Amino acid sequence: MTIKQNIDSEEIQKFDDLAKTWWDEEGDFKSLHQINPLRINFIKERVNLIGKKVLDVGCGGGILSESLADLGAEVMAIDASEKTINIAKAHAKEVKSNVKYLNTTTEELLNDKSHLKFDLITCLEMLEHVPEPSQTINEFSSLLSQNGDLIISTINRNPRSYLFAVLGAEYILNLLPKGTHDYSKFIKPSEISKWIRSANLILNETIGLSYNPITDTYWLGKDIAVNYMMHIKKDNESN
User: Fold this and answer.
1) What is the per-residue pLDDT across 163-212, written as a single tens digit (0 to 9) for each?
2) Which DSSP category does 118 fall into?
3) What global pTM score does this model have?
4) At 59, which helix (H) or strand (E)?
5) How far is it, in rounded angstroms, from Cα 203 to Cα 83?
6) d(CA 33, CA 217)
7) 155-171, pLDDT tens digit by residue?
8) Where are the alpha helices (DSSP H) in the chain?
9) CATH for 9-234, among 3.40.50.150, 3.40.50.2000, 2.20.25.90, 3.20.20.150?
10) CA-wise closest residue to 76 among 91, 61, 98
């Protein structure tokens, strides 16, 4: 059965327009560079990356993808924005990274009957940009090997997250370009928990990401009111 494309052309255009700034550590994606070490540590403390087949979904310019490859993983990284993938490929060539970048989607991977299974799938700050995130979660389950790991991060939906992730980050502190996020697409942890159960996945852990604008520092902790990250496992008994 052919799986329908779960993409938003306006969202892709948004990131097409920003593609050239991915590797400017003081540019539009400065915050992603700042939090990358936190994310990488979270992942490597839970998953042995050496020799693992990893799929990084919504990889952007490859900030996370390259770090995963540096830790010994065999990384395929995909993004629906062709311009962004071209930036990622150019940077990988420059730094001699062996990440395999593809301008594709999880739907297209699954529609290919010879699609691979992955030991780890990462999807950071992407779910809030697709029309049907529950469909994406199902696709992750289909692409994961038995006992595989899934790491996702996204933004909670509540008044505080609107204040901090939209008004604060985009309009007051200028941490992100204006219009990056649509509050209506933010996702509550309870919603993801429901979707993963339906997809034969098991939630292992949820952790929050917090930011102090005075010291310009980020840290991981118990507060999941705004940004949060989840470690999810494939149910070993599922089909």
Assistant:
1) 877 776 766 667 777 767 788 899 999 999 999 999 999 999 999 999 99
2) E
3) 0.90
4) none
5) 34
6) 12
7) 999 998 888 777 767 66
8) 9-18, 30-44, 63-70, 82-95, 106-111, 133-143, 159-161, 189-198
9) 3.40.50.150
10) 98
